[in-house]
Amino acid sequence: MVDAFIELDGVEKVFDVRRRTGFLRRERRQVRAVDGLSFTVARGEIVGYIGPNGAGKSTTIKMLTGILTPSGGRLRVAGIDPARERTRLAHRIGVVFGQRTTLWWDLPLIDSYRLAHRMYRIPDARYRENLDRLVELLDLESLLEVPVRQLSLGQRMRGDIAAALLHDPEVLYLDEPTIGLDVVSKARVREFLGELNTERGTTVLLTTHDLQDIERLCSRVMVIDHGRMMYDGPLAGLHEAGESERTLVVDLERELPPVDVGPAARVVRVEGPRQWLAFPASESAAPLVARIAAEYPLVDLSVREPDIEAVIGRMYADRETVVPGARNS
Ligand SMILES: Nc1ncnc2c1ncn2[C@@H]1O[C@H](COP(=O)(O)OP(=O)(O)OP(=O)(O)O)[C@@H](O)[C@H]1O
């Protein structure tokens, strides 16, 4: 692959866990959180990194930042071994954890940025320039003097993203950046990340449970489970592999028997005048909507995306056909 920026080759992470099994008895057990993982990410790529709870996503990201040392295999970010040269690497990466903030809770937002300025030894002119740009793009002007604890979740997330980018990192790791955000804040964060990637060529590795984050931003998605790569390719391919379905929710004028649109979709639920139709996620909803609108007294409709757990769950149901297609490099 051209200019591989992140490289993992057979990376493993094994945790020793002690568990109490009786009054004085303890059992030692090993948890293989990451199990022979190999992949590369090229400079400027924006890649979704998904998997069920406990799949090994956070452990991978912690190894990529140098917080955790791999138990085996080879790992490089920008040619650097993260565990060995964590401080040198810190100047080239940015990290945002949706569930935790790196901002100073009791201080005004701007103070966290001033601190980053010193910590990363960002040249003054560069700091000013980046701060102005990020404040404008993320609409932070009115929030700079507000203590972080008073910010809403969406405002805090924008604040965190700016903090992670002040030192011009070449790669940004995002762990659930839209978790708990309302629709407007989600859209804003996604739009910003897309722009960052296009304008600055920042490489982005995005962990999320929200398939729309992936749909809006990533041309490539990697699915891991039990620390192993299950799928690596375009999102559309994942939908096909998992035969995932979207749901069309229609409100009719009155209660009617299940609508009949042939093999294009099937009714999975009826509640009064509202009906839920499942159809393949790889298909457009437009012909289905047109047909229902022509043949039934349609009042309103909405389309619901499948969630990641559902897509992955279906992959397992059909695992034999999926694994041979999985790319592991
Ligand atoms: N410090 C640790 N000590 C022992 N086991 C750990 C440790 N950190 C993670 N694990 C275990 O490793 C496995 C992978 O955990 P990890 O946090 O990487 O998963 P994840 O994909 O990020 O999950 P989630 O979506 O729930 O955040 C889990 O079984 C977890 O319990």
TrEMBL record:
Subcellular location: Cell membrane
Key words of the record: Antibiotic resistance, ATP-binding, Nucleotide-binding, Transport
SUPFAM superfamilies: P-loop containing nucleoside triphosphate hydrolases
Major location category of this protein: membrane
Transmembrane segments: none
Presence of the UniProt keyword Nucleotide-binding in the record: yes
Record's bilayer topology term: Peripheral membrane protein
InterPro entries: AAA+_ATPase (IPR003593), ABC_transporter-like_ATP-bd (IPR003439), ABC_transporter_ATP-binding (IPR050763), P-loop_NTPase (IPR027417)
Pfam families from the UniProt entry: ABC_tran
A GO term for molecular function: ATP binding
Domain ABC transporter per the UniProt entry, residue ranges: 6-251
Record protein name field: ATP-binding cassette domain-containing protein
Native species: Streptomyces galilaeus
